[in-house]
Amino acid sequence: MFLKGKTALITGSTSGIGAAYAAALAAEGANVIINGFGDAAAIAEQCAALEASSGARTIHNGADLTNGEQVTAMAEACAAEFGGIDILINNAGIQHVCPVDEFPVDKWRQMQAIMVDAPFLLIRSCLPYMKAKGWGRIISTASAHASVASPNKSAYIAAKHGVLGLTRGVAMEVAEKGITVNVISPGYVWTPLVENQIPDTMRTRGLTREQVLNDVLLAAIPQRKFVMPDQVAAMAVFLCTEGASAITGANLAVDGGWTTQ
Ligand code: NAD
Question: Are the beta carbons of 232 and 140 closer than 8 angstroms?
């Protein structure tokens, strides 16, 4: 329970990797602010389960990350309620698979808003609280697509390179303040985000479901299996330890060897 007394704001934590981050940090005693969409009863159940596991507080804030005012209001409300935010995890993300010359402009803007603009706004809001305490952890979920490319994912690749650049810049600004800033870059993790892109990939590349799974997704991964959400969350827990306090500005791959090839 080494995070007892600390508060973590985790975007996109009603599902997939974000839910795993929330569970892992709560298990170490952190108060957790869940953010994301979903069924209200399921979210209430998730919060209750986290509180039961940790004894710490868990609340949900449903800010839509495409709305800058809601993003900033979420940070301010959470900091006021918990006396600051010690750990910020920018995790929410969406995927859209489409050739760039047909890519809907609105979808492009939505993806940059969630995966680049919201991390910028949240970092901007949370940093003063971290600086005041002389301790902070800022972690963003980037992707193997912050280092490598695939066809028909130009908006996602641009956003993930963007959040990595943001991370490196901020890490330099706060390097002497006890605050570390890093990205975790998973490979393919078996979550709704991956499952939902299978039909589009089948359509745009004329493949069967089996071909998408084995010849496209897992073909890129030397371990030939999907990463599990709790394996990504384990890296976030490590980054919160004092042992990880010299790691900053880093792009930490949890990708089954994908970006090593
Ligand atoms: P997911 O679809 O399971 O969860 C996405 C979360 O983001 C949900 O909680 C959803 O409600 C939330 N969200 C989406 N739009 C939002 C908005 N406008 N405002 C607030 N919340 C919003 O996805 P996941 O696979 O767990 O992905 C989490 C992160 O990991 C994303 O940034 C994704 O790009 C990244 N990632 C995923 C994989 C993978 O293979 N699954 C690989 C590399 C990186």
Answer: no
Q: Which of 113, 116, 137 is nearest to 239 (CA)?
A: 137
Q: How far is the CA of 156 from the centre of ligand 1 (A)?
A: 12
Find the mean pLDDT for residues 28-46: 98
Tens digits of residue pLDDT in 174-218: 999 999 999 999 999 999 989 998 998 899 899 999 999 999 899
The finding on whether 188 has its CB within 6 A of some atom of ligand 1 is yes
Q: Is 224 exposed, middle or buried (0-12, 13-18, 19+ CB in 10 A)?
A: exposed
Cα(189)–Cα(143) distance, integer angstroms: 10
Using the atom order of ligand 1, give the atom closest to the CA of residue 189. 40
The predicted pLDDT at position 54 comes to 84
The Å distance, Cα 176 to ligand 1 centre, comes to: 31
Residue of minimum CA distance from atom 6 in ligand 1? 12
Q: Is the CB of 259 under 6 A from ligand 1?
A: no
Q: Which residues are catalytic?
A: 156
- Cβ neighbours around 142 below 10 Å, total: 29
pLDDT at 197: 85
Give the predicted TM-score (pTM) of the model: 0.97
Q: Structural domains in the chain? A: 7-189+228-254 (3.40.50.720), 190-226 (no CATH)
Q: Which atom of ligand 1 is nearest to the CA of 90?
A: 32
For residue 83, the CA-to-ligand 1 centroid distance in Å is: 27
pLDDT digits (tens, 9 = 90+) for 100-154: 999 999 999 999 999 999 999 999 999 999 999 999 999 999 999 999 999 999 9
